[in-house]
Amino acid sequence: VAVFHWPDPMLDTLEDSLYVNHFSPASTFALNCTARDNSTIAAQWLRLAYHDMATHNATTGLGGMDGSIAFEYTRAQNIGPGMAESLIDFAVSPNQYVGMSDFIAMGAVNAVIGCGGGPVIPFRGGRKDATEAGPATVPEPQQDLASHIDSFKDQGFNETEMISLVACGHSFGGVRKVDFPLIVTEDVPTGIQTFASKIGFDNTVVTEYLSGSTENVLVVGSNVSTRSDLRIFSSDNNATMQRLASLDTFNQVCADLIGRMIDTVPSDVQLTEPIEPFDYKVTLDTMLFPQGGSLAFLTTLRIIENGKNQTVTLFWKERTGTFCPSEGCSISAFHVNTGVEASLLATLKGVQSFNQHSFNASIDLATSISHFWFEVGNNDGSAPIIVDNHGTNFTIDQDVLIFDPRRSSFTIAGEFMVVGVKTSSPVDVTAFVTTTGPIGGVNPIPMPSNTTISFTLDSAHPPADGYTFYTSDRLPNRYSSSTLHATIDGQAYSLWVPTLSALGV
Ligand code: HEM
Predict the structure, then answer these.
(1) Contacts of the segment 424-429: beta carbons below 8 A, 24+ positions apart
(2) Ligand 1 atom 3, closest CA
(3) pLDDT tens digit string along 12-63?
(4) Which long-range contacts (CB under 8 A, 24 or more apart) does 331-337 make?
(5) What pLDDT does residue 245 have?
(6) Please, are residues 482 and 417 in contact by the beta-carbon 8 Å criterion?
(7) What is the chain's alpha carbon radius of gyration, rounded to the nearest angstrom?
(8) What is the three-class DSSP state of 14?
(9) Among candidate residues 213, 223, 161, 155, the one with its CA nearest the CA of residue 187
(10) Sorting pLDDT into bands at 50, 70 and 90, what band is 195?
(11) d(CA 438, ligand 1 centre) in Å
């Protein structure tokens, strides 16, 4: 299991996206098997993930789940509106540390639970987005069995796994003549055409195939050349399909294979260990900025709701000199937000909701802050739990380049970030900003992109408390997050700013 050592922007983003409800569309849109375009969002997402993975070549190690589908979705092999629509679903979520490909993979995990309630597929992060299209290697129904065996072999799956993975995939969604003109569907009713009239993660696709009652056009369609499921399913005399007739086996095999499918990445990509909900998490809105002769320090500790009535105390130590008592300076939470909703995936892992304990500490300007930790009291006589980033403390790397949410301005007229630098010498400050592009134009998919914006000396905010302030260019539309960079007195500093405001600003 991946261990979270704060700060870790990638794990931080992925864990929120997986387990905090509404944090990312990837964990919500596909729930309840929501219908779209004569199919379901879940089916579209699962097909998107497979088609993204299908560029993998196990021999060269190239391709796989890398988001290259964003450059390939207009190909005939990716026909149908589901590809573009699904890419649009995911395009709001990426930032500088997590790309589209991780969200496409997360979409597959949520598609499976969203339509069937399970099985739960482990999620690993760290995929890298491709910058161009991969080869056109998605299998097509008019190809013969030998080609399909070859395609799956290239993708890293043997013949038995091919049979199973196709059965798993085709237990979702439908085949629509309009989207796939190669398939002659005069013998299949129009409208919603789901395999075996079922939507969901069950093995009807298998049992109806075996009993001869299937309406799957890739099995019984009148165009014999596009009966690819028939050729694949029967390729080992139905031995695999018979095994999959057990619902438990089907669920186990599908969880395993879809898991392998989303973890099929270019060989130079190293995925994290599976990401489970973090017990204790310092949330995104942790900020340190000068204010009226001291430093304001805002932070929040998120705890999984556990039925105990807990009290949390924030502790911190000085950066230089002595100011705090030997046990550290401390303060109680000023706000507790109970009942932060967990995602469906989190509830399937036993997490019902989270409590957020927020702090607004005033830090001595001269001695500043080097690190912080928390004590969680159970109010039942038991010893408090020390939450200290797994023994490494929550370290404030630096207080030289800071983001100042109070001096920043966010109005309809425009959004401007203000940063402070702890020097009076002139400094070049830039922000590496992720935005999601406009819908429409040349590329209808609002793919996330990165731009650099610069800062100028802030005439509205004179130097104060040892800091000089710089204001950004107007933030671009569809700003999502940024990382600040500056070289100050010969040393390079950077600061991830995942969010522009915090409770207590
Ligand atoms: C030889 C391999 C495969 C062939 C020839 C094939 C072919 C097709 C075709 C023709 C459609 C209908 C497309 C449309 O009408 O829009 C379809 C739908 C679908 N396929 Fe496959 N497929 C294959 C493997 C897979 C695999 C391995 C998966 C995932 C594990 C998968 C997942 C899906 C899903 C979820 C749909 C429904 C999409 C929707 O309803 O929006 N397919 N496939």
Answers:
(1) 424/463, 424/468, 425/488, 425/489, 426/457, 427/468, 427/470, 427/486, 427/487, 427/488, 428/454, 428/486, 428/487, 429/401, 429/454, 429/455, 429/470, 429/484, 429/485, 429/486
(2) 139
(3) 999 999 999 999 999 999 888 888 887 889 989 999 999 999 999 999 999 9
(4) 331/359, 331/360, 331/361, 332/359, 333/357, 333/358, 333/359, 334/358, 334/359, 334/360, 334/504, 335/503, 335/504, 337/503
(5) 95
(6) yes
(7) 26
(8) helix
(9) 223
(10) very low
(11) 30
Residue 436 token pair: 């999601």
Q: How far is CA 28 from the centre of its chain?
A: 12
**How much of the chain exceeds pLDDT 90, in percent?**
78
Q: pTM of the entire structure? A: 0.94
Q: How many angstroms is it from 111 CA to the middle of ligand 1?
A: 14
Provide residues with CB under 6 Å of ligand 1.
39, 43-44, 46-47, 50, 80, 82, 139-141, 148, 165-166, 168-170, 172-176, 179-180, 228
Looking at ligand 1, which residue's alpha carbon is closest to its atom 42?
169
SS3 of residue 370 by DSSP: coil
Q: Which domains are delineated in the chain?
A: 9-262 (1.10.520.10), 280-395 (2.60.40.2440), 401-497 (2.60.40)
Task: Give the distance (Å) from ligand 1 centre to CA of residue 258.
Answer: 13
Give yes or no for a contact between 129 and 265, defined as CB atoms under 8 angstroms apart. no
| E-only strand ranges, 110-231 | none
Q: Residue with structure tokens 């129009």?
A: 190
Closest atom, ligand 1, to C-alpha of 172:
35
Q: What average pLDDT does the segment 447-471 reach?
A: 95
> Tens of pLDDT along 205-233?
899 999 998 888 899 888 899 999 999 99
101-120 pLDDT, tens per residue?
999 999 999 999 888 777 89
Helix, strand, coil shares of the chain as percentages rounded to 5? 25, 25, 50
CA nearest ligand 1 atom 40, residue = 173
Kindly state the average pLDDT of the residues 271-277.
98
Q: Which helix (H) or strand (E) holds 9?
A: helix 9-19
Q: Which atom of ligand 1 is nearest to the CA of 182?
A: 10
Tokens 């029967």 locate to: 234
Cβ atoms of 159 and 134 within 8 Å: the answer is: no
Helix (H, G, I), strand (E, B) or coil at 395: strand
* CB proximity list for 86: less than 8 A, separation 6 or greater: 41, 44, 45, 48, 104, 107
Can you read off the two tokens belonging to residue 206?
């298998």
Angle at the Cα of 302 (from 301 to 304), degrees rounded to 5?
140
Which structure tokens are listed for 487? 């070289």
